[in-house]
Here is the input.
Amino acid sequence: MDKKTLKLGLAFVMALSIPTITSCKYDDDDLWKNVDDLNNRVEALEQKVKTINSDVEALRLIVSSLESNVTIISVTEKNNGYEIEFSDGKTALISDGKDGIDAPEISIRQEDGIYYWTLGGELLQVDGQPLPTTGPQGKPGENAVAPQLQINPDTKLWEISTDGGSTWTSTGVKAQGEPGNSIFSEVDNSNPDFVTFTLSDGSEFTLTRHDETAPIFAIDKSEGIQEFLRGESLTYNVTAKNISDYSISKPDGWKVTYSEGLLNITAPIDGNHYAETEGTIAINLVSATGRGLIAKITVKTVPFKLRILTFEDEDAKFGQYKLPYCDKIISTWSDLIDNKQYGGQMLYGNGGMGMDEPYQWHDANNTELRHVMPESYGSYCYWSGGHAISNYADTDLKNGDFSHQLSVYGNGGHNSSKNFAMHFGYIDNSSFGMTEHLPALEFADGTARTIDHIWVMNTTYAMNSYMSGNGLTPQIGPDDWVQLIATGYNASGTKTGEVKIYMCNGPDNIVRDWTKWDLSPLGNIVKVEFNITGSSDNGYGFSQPGYFAYDDVAVRFTE
Here is the structure.
């Protein structure tokens, strides 16, 4: 609500409470003063929410700089705060702690050499794991993000997000708008050699000031825990300056060398039972003037790493190819999105009646997952099933019909991304289905791997059908359900297992946010098929829309 609307609404309500006055005029200065005071309080509260989130991001940058041996170029005093300029070119704006607000207490705690976010003094958890300030979150491949805060306009409670604002969880703390502590209680800028940041819980972080004679050893992309497969070697680019001498300490069994701006680290091989599986590598550096610096990088061996199929253009590593039936050149993921949701040339062919060749894509040089539209009754067409790349999104249930079949219910892909994949197709026990072969994902190189997880979400079409029904099926009742089934197969075509997830289990349990689906119980597979089933049957088989959206498919790599 903008300020003008707020004023008019409040003026109307207040006017109703004023007794009828026969005089030709009355003094309304006090009324408008109260309205302006309320507007000022609302605007001030909104500004303080922005300040808190700015402080959270600043704290993340400070810890990241501390871990990466980044120094401080300058500290400039601003109105109610400071602007910090770091030697890697980044800047942070933080408040001075004098004009806080009664928000939940966000801070940092170090455990086993790793910095984690805390909320109200307790470790902030995501999927049962503490949320690190930098580096991987939980399993490999999932990057940590700074938490964000907002005030729910309906409940007036503070909410927190740990996925970039895609989902929000109540903290149970009432937003009173009263003065309280900021994240930062003090910035000590008095020492010529370093700057000390003190948090409201008493924690302190000290960063060195930049000095032209001091040693510099900034290791690129070394934040958080660096994960290695057994025997794996990784090389890091290093910005080094004023280095006269150095020595390296490392965990037992690890190999570390440095030469001409390159730091090479090799993890212990399998069979070395005496090697340490994790620890800290420290590079002790000295300049010609005797200034010292210790650069650190934390390392750990892991049984696998995750590669993520994101469907985002910037992550596309496949080579250019052509869909011959529609003469379409595919250079990136967005090229695979049909120009209309129903009846488009890429998914339905030139005449809308199917193609002689399949719509297909391959995440080459990354996860190696491939999808080829399955043939059904001698032709290829999306009405018989497939996995289409999409960026269509809609929360207006008036658009919940087959003509909007590629729309996810929401604002886009998982984690606020743009693109995702849309599954259509199912096989039931009836003879009326159009799907002859279930849509599948397979590894194009034929290597069996474990798909760790996948993120799934309902479509606008399905959501409307669940809640309101349509001409083919009634709305979901208390005993109705819709379920996804993933079936894995090994290289010989033998079924390895099934995993299931409910997309709807009664009207009060409908998936409304992107949800993580664990596929690891399928084990090492070369192919996974997806089916949709449920309780709704209109006499012609399963009658709910046979769609679901998926994104960010994580695959385990062990070499």
In short: Residues 1-26, 31-40, 137-142 have pLDDT under 50 and may be disordered. DSSP finds four helices and 36 strands in the chain.
